[in-house]
Every structure is written in C-alpha cells, then in structure tokens.
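Can anyone check this?
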Amino acid sequence: QVQLVESGGGLVHAGGSLRLSCAASGFIFSSQYMTWVRQAPGKGLEWVSSIYSDGSNPDYADSVKGRFTISRDNAKHTLYLQMNSLKPEDTAVYFCNADVLGRRYWGQGTQVTVSS
C-alpha cells in the first residue's frame, strides 16, 4: 500500500537549518508529482513546495522562496526539503503528500519548531 514517512524535524534556533525527508513506497515514485504542506499550530494547511516527477520545475510558496529547496532522489524513492534561515513562523508540522490514481495520500508529518 502507499506509504509516506517523513523524518528530519526537530527544534532549531532562528536562522538555523533542517533537512526533511519523505520516504515513499507502494507506488511508482519516479512518476509522481510530490508536494510538501505544513500546518502551523491553530492554523490550516499551507502549501509549501512541489516538484515534478523528474525533479524539474520546483515551485515554492512566497513565504519560503529563497530559503527552502525541494529535491528528490528517485533511485531512493525519497523526497527532501532543505530548510535554511528558519524563522519562528516556520514552526509547523510538515507533511509530504501525493495524489496517486486520484487519491491523495499523506504521511504522519514531522514537527519543526523554530525558537526565537
């Protein structure tokens, strides 16, 4: 079955960096458009970044543009999000997700906390 497992979150000071990973299984990862989404405490879901199946056309929310970099390793079935210059407002649970055959799948999320 489709599984998405995020990791790499943690507690970091403002200005620091983290690298999130999303390990995928149960579908043809190399054919799949992938997305990172986050949810801050008490707020709704916010799209963060997306990437085409071949690693092209990375796209970013204005709030993270220039600080975050999305990438993927199709041989390892893994999606990444490199987060630099982190701000307290980046504090959220980060999820990867994919729309596989018309159904959207989510991982369990990984918590990122940025202290000021």
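Reply from J.R.: I decoded it. The chain has a mean pLDDT of 97.
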